[in-house]
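Please go through the protein record below and explain what the tokens say about the fold. Record follows.
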Amino acid sequence: MNKIVGKEYLSEKIVKLEVEAPLIAKSRRAGHFVIVRVGEKGERIPYTIASSDIKRGTITLVVQLVGKSSQKVGALEVDDYITDLVGPLGKATNIENFGTVVCAGGGVGIAPMLPIIEAMSKAGNKVVAVLGARTKDLVILEDQVKEFADEVIVMTDDGSYGEKGLITEGVEKVIKREKVDLCLTIGPAIMMKFVSLLTRKYNIPTLASLNTIMVDGTGMCGACRVTVDGKTKFVCVDGPEFDAHQVDFDEMLMRLKAYN
């Protein structure tokens, strides 16, 4: 069992939990995720590790309160315990000095983008973070992103904060003014699809993290299967990051409707 040592609401439906997990904190890398279970009969839920503190022996998880299981996780308070916590899982992000890297994070996808931004910055890249959300209240972790990104552009659908417009507009603004060597995108599948279509037009290598479709986290349930370059892949064991220009986003969007 893993103890909750910190809790903070980032918005009405998004909560940040700091959890004791010293071994995971020590070994995790950008892109890794964990499987969480609350209660002996609880559902297995995958969460990307937003950050870790090796000295404190903790990891940070950001939970969007949408279904019964995520609400059970979000209902935990400081000094409560997570029944099971397994990780780090998945393949870590390939971190090297690419040059100029654009990191496009949408909504709660900003949380798993944070450790990538940090790692890319420490590897010597110029990092431009483009954060997108429907409204100001849904822009999360902006201050933490600013600690590592060379520039932060915030786009909101309603114009209540930052610039009014879609995240693709912010990404394209960067592309038009300077050479971009790599783009990474994490967020709703429809957002990643259109970021991918945009960067394909400009021939910019792009990675998309498809963690939103994961369920089991071990490859056994098959719920996270996606088609990449015409081949079946499992997000939890083959990913969660893939060449965005090879992902069949239309198929992924169709399969995600099953969870509605």
